[in-house]
Amino acid sequence: MVIIGERINTSRKDIFEAVVKKDVRFIQEEAKQQIDAGASMLDVNAGMMLEKEPECLEWLVKAIQDVVDVALSLDSSNPVAIEKALNVHRGQALINSISLESSRYNQMIKLVTEHKSSVVGLCLDDKGFPTSSRERLDNASNLLDKLMRDGVDLSVIYLDPLICPLSTDYNAGKIILETINGIRESFTGVHIIVGISNISFGMPARRILNRAFLPMSIAAGVDAVIIDPLDKNMLAILLASETLFGQDEFCLKFIEAFRRGEIIKS
User: 210 near 202, Cβ under 8 Å?
Assistant: First the structure.
């Protein structure tokens, strides 16, 4: 399972303030804490900086990679910001994201191929936000065909089934799980990624919903999750889920995490 830490996002007040003040130490501590907690990649989002997003995303990449040697998920719909970040990123970045929307695809595909990046593909086209699992699966198929025709290897594509929050559609969880199952059955070799907390946006007791949705997503076929790795209960549930679904040989990861005190007996 690829665990992508979600915390370095300027939608969070403390991160926004740290970016405004160029507080390198604060950002670097956030990065180190997430990696120490078990994240294998970090999502980096400077979208709230508006017209300053390109320079801020570039600054964040430099600050983070000065202290942690991991790939970053460059989370932006702004191709200028993505390009500036890619130019300073060390190693293979994950561009988050591309879609079938014509303008977005044409701008992002050049960056994906020129920089040989991994890429998150949203199951979205020019018709707008899909309402059913069938629409999402059709978009997934069309996007995969298009990306591979343009020279992107299947192994570096992460399909995002496009979570709609429960607060806007009470069937959202069911629809996404159906979509994940369909992608896993139809497209062997592609990665599937979800931002777990998107499901609970606008709802009370968000962490409860997130923790319940995580093992369901893993069972359906997700192999990359964007989560808060400092939520120890979430990490424990992830490890337990991998173990129960036969993804932890001899249960060694679970046992070792317990011995390190990362999983606490209730």
Answer: no
Residue carrying the six token digits 């191929």: 113
Q: What is the Cα–Cα distance from 28 to 80, expressed in whole angstroms?
A: 24
Q: Which two tokens stand for residue 56?
A: 């801020």
Kindly report, residue by residue over 189-244, the tens digit of the pLDDT. Answer: 999 999 999 999 999 999 999 999 999 999 999 999 999 999 999 999 999 999 99
- Which amino acid, one-letter code, is at 231? D
pLDDT digits (tens, 9 = 90+) for 146-166: 999 999 999 999 999 999 999
CA distances in angstroms from 108 to 32, 77, 89, 112, 121, listed in the order given: 29, 9, 16, 6, 11
Residue 256 neighbours by CB under 8 Å, 6+ apart: none
Note whether 218 and 238 are within 8 A (CB). yes
Amino acid at 196: I
- Note whether 162 and 209 are within 8 A (CB): no
